[in-house]
Design a protein that fits this description.
The complex is a heterodimer of chains A (193) and B (196). By secondary structure, chain A is mainly α. Chain A contains 9 helices and no strands. Chain A has helices at 2-14, 25-30, 35-64, 73-95, 97-103, 106-111, 114-125, 130-160, 170-185. Chain B has helices at residues 2-25, 32-40, 54-63, 75-86, 119-123, 177-180; strands spanning 105-109, 129-130, 138-139, 159-163. Classes of the chains: A mainly alpha (193), B mainly alpha (196).
Chain lengths: 193, 196
């Protein structure tokens, strides 16, 4: 139980996917202009990351490893994650239009994102158990959502702030992201990796 | 090596079939009314109704955001059909959107005058104009819907609208002489005023 708790805390705070692993930077910069879109993207990421952790674990454990094809993991993970997310998107659109409205446009965006593939590969590297890898995926997504929402909040305020003209737009956003990463470094050493 | 190829092939095949099955099984059917309205429209994709094409116009009618009299290429017949589908009364064509012409026309480029500017190619909603920059353009007559959208952008006014010649495949059977003078009357039910 403590092991699982540590995985969650570790992925959300200590090894945050965006601010200390530097994965998923494109949605982090791209969809953080508004709080609502950031929330939608965060939810979609949580969904996709959990799904991809499960599928990549099963694929690795029951197909790639028994056949001695570990070197194919990057290629096959891309294939499996893209296909499963595509399938789920279609199923959601049919069964729950409400959920599709919330997640719909973000799902294809996040599907082949580096964060999703990165978490699947890191999961294998850390040789987590089945539950462990699900929690690792979910925790990473939670960390991503947290940072994205925080960043979106800051950027909404930055939009009305009087920024010197050389720093306007993406420049100040990148500086903000860097300061946030510095702040999150304070969590390192909270648990042993 | 063989195992690797077969594994990836098997995975790709499995997921391909899964997605193919999902595309059929989870297909979301569109609104049937919109399909019917879209079928009644002339598919010129001319945008004279102020919507970007016939289907968006059909969707706007279905949502009640547009009147049924905004389609000049379709004219009275189309308005009649749209009114039947929507269960409303027919109204005359709105002149703001253009005039209806009874003879089908096709755009023809006077090729001696064409300077190859490609402006009409960009304007054509159905890709019926062929040509390249600084090359002479020409209209594919079978594809042209006669929407006249290519006329305004032409800087040398070398596009003309000509009536389509009649042949065995395109034959307009003229109305019998006796019928021509009978005015078309659209019967509408008397309006019921509630509360009287």
């Amino acid at each position: 139980m403590t092991e699982y708790l540590l995985i969650i805390i570790g992925t959300v705070w200590v090894n945050n996917i965006v601010l200390s692993q530097f994965l998923g930077l494109c949605p982090f910069m791209g969809v953080s202009r508004k709080l609502e879109t950031a929330m939608g993207m965060g939810l979609a990421t949580a969904f996709v990351l959990t799904l991809s952790s499960i599928s990549s674990y099963l694929l690795y454990q029951y197909i790639l490893e028994p056949l001695g094809l570990e070197y194919l993991r990057t290629l096959s993970f891309i294939l499996v994650i893209a296909a499963i997310v595509g399938f789920t998107e279609m199923a959601i659109r049919k069964t729950s239009p409400l959920l599709h409205n919330v997640l719909g446009i973000y799902l294809p965006l996040i599907t082949s994102n580096c964060a999703v593939l990165g978490i699947a590969l890191l999961n294998i590297q850390a040789s987590h158990s089945f539950v462990g890898s699900i929690l690792y995926g979910m925790g990473s997504a939670l960390g991503f959502t947290l940072v994205l929402v925080l960043f979106a909040g800051i950027r909404e305020r930055l939009a009305v702030a009087d920024v010197p003209s050389p720093f306007k737009g993406n420049a100040i956003a990148l500086i903000t992201a860097g300061l946030m990463a510095l702040a999150f470094m304070g969590f390192s050493g909270l648990i042993r990796a | 090596m063989i195992v690797a190829i077969l594994t990836l092939l098997g995975l790709a095949l499995f997921f391909g079939l899964l997605l193919g099955y999902a595309a059929i099984h989870f297909k979301v059917k569109g609104n049937p009314i919109v399909d019917k309205l879209d079928a009644a429209l002339p598919q010129t994709q001319c945008g004279q109704c102020t919507f970007p094409g016939c289907r968006p116009y059909a969707e706007a009618i279905e949502r009640g955001e547009a009147e049924i009299n905004q389609c000049p290429p379709g004219g009275e017949t189309t308005i009649q059909e749209l009114a039947d589908i929507m269960g409303v009364e027919t109204i005359p064509l709105n002149d703001d959107h253009g005039e209806h012409s009874d003879t089908p026309e096709v755009a023809v480029i006077i090729e001696d005058q064409c300077i190859g500017c490609t402006l009409c190619i960009q304007a054509c909603p159905v890709d019926a104009i062929m040509g390249a920059a600084k090359q002479m353009h020409t209209v594919i007559a079978d594809e042209c819907t006669g929407c006249e959208l290519c006329l305004p952008p032409c800087p040398v006014d070398c596009i003309v609208m000509l009536p389509i010649k009649q042949n065995i495949e395109r034959w307009n059977n003229p109305l019998p002489l006796a019928l021509e003078n009978i005015p078309v009357v659209v019967e509408t039910a008397p309006k019921v005023v509630q509360g009287e």
